[in-house]
Amino acid sequence: MSTPTFVASLLAALWLLSAAAGARAGVPPPLELGQGERVLVLAPHPDDETLSAAGLMHQVLQRQGSARVVIVTAGDAYVEGVERDTGKRHPHAADFLKYGETRLEEARRAVQVLGEGAVRLDLLGFSDGALYPMLVSHWRRVHPEKSEFTGFDHVPYPEAEDEGMVQDGEDLRRQLLAILRDTDPTLIVFPDVMENDSDHAALGMFALLAISDWLSMPGHPPPQPRLLAYLIHWQNHWPPGSSADRPVDLSSQPLYLPDDLPLRGHRRACLPLGALDKELKWDALARYATQQRVMGAFLAAFVRGTECFSVLKSRDSRGIKNVIKQWQHVRKAFDSHPLRRRTIGAAR
């Protein structure tokens, strides 16, 4: 959750276009879970898996299902967090690397709490802030993205599954495809492409690209998986309570997706959380000590009575052209959007 937000003009454009999206009509229907679901949660940074889907994973496991979490970056470029932990105004590359190592270890502890050892965890270890450049300008292995914080153009963490892998978009897409094939999920949970954070939005795009490839493979059996897009970063101090001076317990209240998040033809659904779901979510978030020190109120704002998602249709993942439309749907006011078909389409 530590990458820079998009430019202010994006926020203004979203405000101008939000009226067309329509307000939330009542309470979204409940998200129905079956027996034996296989849920795959894709998270850009350590803690996003817990903020978005801790209760969902717990309920899937309670119904004799399985859960797998893939955390793509080490979250190592959160400057405010590194400055706070080191006491340095100008941290060095070694400080960011140490911070990344700590966050990866925190993720292991948090996921252990969520599933009591039953959740499979993949820590890919890419650089915080690298996903958007990997998507739009560093697609090929011969031109990897180099972190301005750690100085590496490949995964430097020995504890990461991808140690040594160069930071390019094509290799990440292929790895996500391999994970999909290995997991064969019935539920795929990933960031909304409208997220107001570059890593989050980019991972949403990578997810749709990989899902498209997976569903297009010969012999892919029905039924189609359900695609659930979550939201962590938005505007106007959403979620309520996230900007408080200290953490506030709002767990008795539901949390819905914001009214000004464009619907884009998707329906929404919310999973009601029970007392044990929320207790596990609190406990898992407590493992993220580095984040509690700098954004405790933000983390607490996601421990609510619901976890809500935009429910995409499988066809929403089909082809680069449709994937790009997902992102550009309400951003058409921009004269020069950085993501164009020629940018990554030629790399296919």
From TrEMBL:
Source organism per UniProt: Methylogaea oryzae
Example of a GO MF term: hydrolase activity, acting on carbon-nitrogen (but not peptide) bonds, in linear amides
Domain of life: Bacteria
Annotated signal peptide: 1-25
Protein name, as recorded: PIG-L family deacetylase
Assigned keywords, A-Z: Signal
Pfam families: PIG-L (PF02585)
